[in-house]
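Appendix B: complex inputs.
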Amino acid sequence: MTTLTRRVAAATALILLVLSGCSPTAGERSGARAVKPDKDRKEAPDFALKDADGRTVRLSDYRGKVVLLNFWATWCGPCKIEIPWFMELEQENKDRGFAVLGVAMDEGGWDAIKPFLAELRVNYRTLLGTDMVAQQFGGVEALPTTFVIDREGRIASTHVGLASKSDYENDIKALLAQR
Amino acid sequence: MSPPRTTAARDSVVSTRLAVQLRNGYHVNSNTPAEDYLIPLGLTWNVSPLEVREIIYPKPKMEAYPFSTKPLSVYTGDFEIVTRFAVPARAPLGASIVTGKLRYQACTNSACLPPKTVEVRLPVDIRAQ
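Resulting structure:
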């Protein structure tokens, strides 16, 4: 290379980061609605995922309990807002037949997830998600996506994107009251 | 994605601009996110006859979001990433394709999409002078 450096033609490339297929748009809050009536609820797909200790956990293990199933990732800012709510909800309702299951969708696996769980002192069970399980639940294109599942293992409500704590409280209260 | 062919002379420096358009309502983290847990925007180029001299990202915006206690360093709307390539004096003459990857992770105010990597292809015609 000589000391004389020349700038030559500039090429312009255009990348359209097409984000279609993602449900929520800016500022939208989806899923802030009451639980579905019994007749409209569909069976939640069963799965077998590993927890942080390497144990296999099936959703069907929780039959008889109300389950809040939260798909999240460490790189997801809105997810970080909800996690403390879920910790409180688990603490408040675990003796009444309620459980939270976190499904972490990080590509980096437990190496990325475990330090995050420790930092936030997450007190509920977290599982390492897979694309296959996400597909079973409709794709889970945006995070957080949360399913509230009734005691019979049916999806009673779905929240895509950051919801409010009261949305979850209302869902859980309604489902715990059902016998 | 294939931008227009670039003509580059041996023993010179070529600047290329990668134009990015985000859909309204979305942001991507900048190449220098404000928080460790966020995935940065990153452009990388594969080995080619051209040598990457410098990748210049635009100045990010510091924006407040309801899910963060402090402003985040992001890009929104349309922006460009400039790459300066050096063309070695012995670079092989003729047409070639320089390939690279753009990795990004996008969010709205309330939800995030998984990180994605898209291929960038830059056709180059290297000439003697």
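Chain B has a mean pLDDT of 93.
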